[in-house]
Every structure is written in C-alpha cells, then in structure tokens.
Amino acid sequence: MDNRSGEMSVFTAVAESGSFSSAGRKVGLTPSAVSKLVSRIEERLRTPLFVRSTRQLQLTAEGALYLERARRILAEIDETERLIATGAGAVPRGRLRISASVAFGEMCVLPRVPRFLELYPQVELDISLSDAVIDLVDERTDIAIRTGRLRDSTLKARKLFEIGRVIVASPAYLERHGVPQHPEDLARHLCLCFNFRRSPEDWPFRDPESGKAFTQAVSGTALGNSGVVLRRLALDGAGLARLGRYHVRGDLAAGTLVSVLEEFNAGDIEPIHAVYVGHAHLAARIRAFVDFLADAIRQETEPTEGSGGR
Fold it and tell me: Which has fewest Cβ within 10 Å: 2, 57, 92, 152?
C-alpha cells in the first residue's frame, strides 16, 4: 500500500531544506533513500519536481504546486487527528502566525494580544506587521488582515468591520499653509502619499451639491510606505494625509490632527477582513483568534466608524 502522506512529508522536507542529505537527517532516512523516494514520486506523476544541480535543488513549477498542495494535505491530516484525539471542542493550542498592516496591527491587533493570551494560554502568537500582501501558503501564515475588496481566491474570509477615510493635517501645518476650502486647493499644498503607487496619487471626492464624484491629483515632498509613517509625518506638520479614520480618531479627539474638506468627503468605505486558508476542520486556534478579534472590534467600534473617510 502506498504511503502518500509519508512521501509528501519527505518531499516537503527536501523542498524546505534544499538538499537530500538535510532532509534525510530531518526524517531519519539516508540521502540515497530520500533521493529514490522523490524519484518514485516523479515517475508516478511523470514530471520532474526538482531541477537538480551539484550545488542545490530547485523546485520546478510542478514541484511548487505539489509542495503547496502537500502542505495543505499534511495540515489537514494533523488537524483531523488532533480533532479526533481531543474532541470537537479542542482547546486552542500551538503557534498562530498572523500578518497585518502596520497601522491596523498597531491600532487593533497588538493592544488585544494580552487579553487573548490570557484567555488562551496554550496559543503562541507569531505576529508580523507589513503593508505587503503576502501569500499565506508560501509564508506559512495562518491569518492575514486585509483592507479593501478581496480578490477571488480559495481563501476563506470573515469581515471584521468597515473603515472610511479622512484628510487630516496638524494645526501647525494649517496655520502655516492655510486650510484648503476646495479639493482644487490641494494642488498648492504638500500632500503625503504612499510610495507604492505606480502613478501620481489621486484622492477621491464628491461634490456636496451635485453629488458627482471626482478626483484631485495630489503631490508633495514626502512619501511613506504605511499609514503609520504618513500619520507621523502629518503629526509633525509635514503635510496633509488621507488616512483611515480608525487610525487617527484618537488624534482628532485630542486636537493634534484636524480634519479638512469633510463636506467633499467621497464617503468611500473599505471592508477589513481576516482571511485564512479554508479547511474542512478549521484549527481551533484560528477560529478562536478570528472570533475574538471580530467580537472585540464590534464592541469597541463606534457606530459612525465607517462613515465619511478611511
């Protein structure tokens, strides 16, 4: 009888270590036995999974696909056995890898970590904050928090809440440069933009009288790769920034930032989702964190959070 899961485990070890000898040490087989096992898989599939050289092994396109599916299957097997061994009401345990944008992570994830770990002490959180969109399978990440419309994929998603955007500046900046009265005034202002835009940034607006939507091109002398960077620059008086309202609500309440052009706010709303690889049996630690975060945000988000800006 073929041991496909065992073959997948060995293949995954080879792909992750980059050599037959390293994989052999990990799984307790000789390098020649590992090499023969991989060759057997390739013969059965009638396609090479690795490009072999004297220095290293590189996955072919078919090998990369096989690795992705093998990881999912092995994870399903592990989770199924864990469910059977502990029952459907399994206690959340194990390492939970989470990816979120810098701004959302600082504002909404990190402050809630102590309470989550208090509730689930057998879970180990591994949190990465980056505005880059990652591949959950390649990065071996359990949950990613994503803003905006989701692309079609095999990922499962849970909407956490919706955000609007607002244009803000420090009182000191507005005192020096004046308060813009119309979006066209932004052409004469320093606007803080994201540095990952491929073209000049356009900010959306809506005419308060006609209701017609339009955009205004903006530019400035400072760029940033995250909302955290742009917020800091805005607080220091470097210019105007268009940011998530949840990100600056504390600054607005404290008066350290002031909103402008609110009557022209486009009212565009973006959803924030927790996304994860879908399995028939979702790991208890993933379900626990998604439910915890969704409940915490729902309790603390103001009813007007989604209205008027990001």
Answer: 152
As a whole number of angstroms, the distance between CA 267 and CA 308 comes to: 4
Q: What is each CA distance from 262 to 15, 144, 167, 205, 248, in whole angstroms?
A: 53, 31, 8, 9, 15
Residues 9, 206: Cα–Cα separation, whole Å:
56
Q: Which residues pair with 147 in a beta bridge?
A: 272
For residues 20 and 144, give the distance between their C-alpha atoms in angstroms, rounded to a whole number.
33
User: How confident is the prediction along the chain (310 residues), in pLDDT tens digits per residue?
Assistant: 468 899 999 999 999 998 899 999 989 999 999 999 999 999 999 999 999 887 778 899 999 999 999 999 998 888 777 766 665 556 888 899 999 988 889 888 999 999 999 999 999 999 999 888 888 888 889 999 988 778 767 788 999 988 899 999 999 999 999 999 999 999 999 999 988 765 568 999 999 999 999 999 999 999 998 888 999 999 999 999 999 888 898 999 999 999 999 999 998 888 999 999 876 567 889 999 999 999 998 887 644 444 443 3
Q: Which residues contact 42 (CB under 8 A, 6 or more apart)?
A: 48, 49
Q: What does the DSSP assignment read for 91-121? A: PP-EEEEEEE-HHHIIIIIGGGHHHHHHH-T
Interstrand relation of 240-244 and 165-169 (parallel, antiparallel or unpaired) = antiparallel
The first and second tokens of residue 295, run together, are 């409940």
Q: Give the C-alpha distances (Å, rounded to integers) separating 306 from 182, 234, 295.
A: 23, 22, 17
Amino acid of residue 102: V
